[in-house]
Amino acid sequence: MSLGDPESTNENDYFGSIGKEKEKAPGPEKRNPDELQVFSRELNPMLNPDSTAPEPVPAPREAQYGAPGHKWRMMKLRRTYEIAEQSGVPVEQVALERYGSMDAFDEARRERQFLEDAETPAGDTSKASAPPPRSGNASVFRRPAPSPMERPSPSVASAKAPAQDSVRIPSVLPRAAAPSNDQPSPSLTDLNKLEAKALRAEMANRPDAPALRAELDKAKAAASSQSTQGTVEALPVLDGYGRMYDLGTSTAAELEEQASTKKRAKDAEEPTDESLAELVRQERLSAGRMDQKNGDAALAQQIATDHGFEDDLEYMDDEAQRFARKKMRDDAMKRQFAIQDFARTKKALDECNFCWQDEGRMPPRANIVSTGTLVYLALPDREPLVDGHCWIVPMQHHVSSLDVDEDGWTEIRNFMKCLIRMAASRNQSMVFFETVLSLRQQKHTYIEAVPIPNDAFAELPAYFKTSLSEVESEWSDHKQIIYFSEERPFQRSMVSKLPYFMIQWDYKGQRGYGHIIESRDDEHGYRQAGPNNDDEAVYGDGDHLGGSGFPKYFAQEIIGSLLDLEPYKWRRPRHVQGMAQHLARFRASWAPFDWTNLVAEGS
User: Fold this and answer.
1) Count of alpha carbons within 13 Å of 519, Cβ hemisphere only?
2) Is the CB of residue 509 less than 8 Å from the CB of residue 528?
3) Which of 121, 343, 509, 562 is the most exposed place for a label (fewest CB within 10 A)?
4) What separation in angstroms does the CA of 96 have from each of 76, 103, 112?
């Protein structure tokens, strides 16, 4: 092979390239970090002039009222009004925080109005005749706290949820023109006073008579319009004794079904038997009238009020329908009874002179001499029967002293022992008596203590024994006299569910008499309209004035007659002039025997 051969030349080039470094291709220049860097995808034309203009954003579509999600939007609107009401700030301020702008808030309100119009029948034009409300007035939509028995069941269909909201949301156009509630409606007493004032002006031909008559007509119109509006009542759960009310268990859907005639007719039928669950329910929900809650007591009451009763099974079988227990027909009657009983209890507590008011910040309006932890000693608010006459009052509102717990009775016995010692230092004996005339009025009970000279005290038991045997009808349903003994003292001989009178002359309740107070209207009770407007026997509880029943001053009359006192002392006792001086004298004589001072010194 010669040097000029092409094959030899290529071979030399190949071997000549072995062992030399390969040259790299020149890379891009390194960027200066201080200079502004603009990427090729930058859309801002101020930074990248080569960028193309963005596509135009389509215009927002009109809001479709009632579209999916409207329930959440209405819930947000309702919550806005709730927050404004609870915090006491204008609703516009809360709307700006939750919606971001008033336009969005107004849009939600317009959707609410659209939904309301969709639910209203076409012929109903009552909404369009009233001026728009003030959106900032949240007090118009105030609601009470929800009751446990009124919460809707989760299984109930929510097709009418916007119409059944617990908080009413104002609409752009309200439903009807409601009268202004800036001023409260006049009461019946105010109307009577205003009418009497107008009549006197008309009879005297005074120039202001027409103005008074116009004011009276305006007040009557306001009262009548207020009476036609619905009222909201608090539905209690417990009664004054701490027992649960039977309020019923019907849901909203069941109540709507009961509106039909067939359903009501079916519910009106008397049940022939009761299940075990129903019996357990009646036992737990024991609050209310005895004839509605206790079947045995109701049967005994029916028998007691039957003058022609015969102790014969055939007679009882023939009269079984009449002796049958009359039940409350529906939940509405049960709730109405609970509301009325709660109102009676609230009135008794608000008007009680022996209870602490305003959550313990205001002391009782009684002439307190000495106070313990649960019981205090007080003087009568009127002229006492004799010098040393006082009251032993429990601090808690009890209708009967038998409802006081054992700690309270320990303090009651301490006061009794000290009063007996104080009377013995004056050659006197102390008598304690309690009169519970009515359980329905729920008055605060107290035990009266009256000192009596020893010579007259020897005749006192015989006087009371004779008077108790003659005080009411001889055909009474209970024993005329209940004797207290060591085996059966006062607390074991009497019950707190019936009105009673008791008198004792020792602190243990082992020496004395008791008497069950029956109806003061007739001999065996009275009758009132039942749930179906039929006469229904109701056992008397001493709440009926008139007749020859048990007098409220029974013990005072016997003691006053024994001591030859004037009848006004117990019939119409006078007001005491200088109660402060009278209270100071009693405290001075009571101080050496006051057991509360020893407790205070020991602590």
Assistant:
1) 17
2) no
3) 121
4) 13, 9, 18
Strand partners, 379: 367
- The structure's pTM equals 0.50
Cβ-contact 81, 140 below 8 angstroms: no
CA distance 174 to 60: 30
Name the token pair of 296.
């045995």
Give the distance, in angstroms, between the CA of residue 255 and the centroid of all CA atoms in the same chain.
Answer: 23
* CA 96/CA 90 separation, integer angstroms: 10
The predicted structure's pLDDT at residue 548: 46
| pLDDT score recorded for residue 190 | 82
Residue pair 479/390 in contact by the 8 Å Cβ criterion: no
What distance separates the 2 farthest-apart alpha carbons in the chain? 173
**Which DSSP symbol is given to 374?**
S
Q: What is the pLDDT of residues 450-500, one digit of tens each?
A: 999 998 998 999 999 998 888 876 667 788 889 999 999 999 999 888 899
User: What is the reported pLDDT for 417?
Assistant: 94
Calculate ∠ Cα 593-598-600, nearest 5°. 130
d(CA 497, CA 438): 10
* Amino acid identity at 520: R
Closest alpha carbon to 336 in 226, 265, 236: 236
Ramachandran bin of 358, using left for φ above 0, alpha for ψ from -120 to 50, beta for the remaining angles: left
* Encoded tokens for 415: 């006061």
- And the tokens for 23? 């040259």
Mean pLDDT for all residues in the chain = 73
